[in-house]
Fold Phosphate regulon transcriptional regulatory protein PhoB.
Amino acid sequence: MNERKVLIVDDEFAIRDMLRMALEIAEFRCIEAENIQDAHALIVDERPDIVLLDWMLPGGSGLELLRRLKRNDATRELPVIMLTAKTAEDNVIQGLDVGADDYITKPFAPRELIARIKALLRRAAGGDQQDRIQVAELVLDGESRRIFLGEDPVDMGPTEFNLLQFFMSHPERAYTRNQLLDHVWGANVYVEERTVDVHIRRLRKALQTPLKDYSDLIQTVRGTGYRFSARGVPSR
């Protein structure tokens, strides 16, 4: 089996060492950098499969490197997970706006990070669209494009399906309307932001049945946009 190569960019040796050991146990190959200059050189020379990028770095922030990567055609599609001690939602949104594929806040469990890495690599390879995703009694079958609540099929339009598939693949993360437009409708498609609100209302309505109400899975984040949260699963 070919090892997937992970670039760890963090100025703290203890964190790099902890990540390297956990990733090597999970059969990843690791390369390391402690500043954005070395990181960029390694990206060009070593071509990693994914980058774990700390927000705060000497000689420039991780956000600065992320912007540089997303401006370059050769590195634009390189998956990037931001590692940050910044928990304020506006900082998280800023990283996602620039182009980060995911983020995780310190301190974090290595097992959770590895799960995020594997999920992101599957998405980058196009594997997410065929996944069967389940949250409690809500089941999304990407291959047949069908939704079930328990044993009952749920009727919804193709845009609502795509929106739910994106949300279920990216739980517990807040997204702005613009980000949802880019991910679900496509970056090159012009659609007004309020269109997102219309489809959110339709999606919530579709997730309400006479016996089950899963509409609270789609949460409004004041001042930001929306998130999908399993904490909205109704109690039995």
About this structure: Residues 67 and 98 are 6 Å apart (CA to CA). The chain has two domains: 4-124, 128-232. The first strand starts at residue 4 and ends at 9.
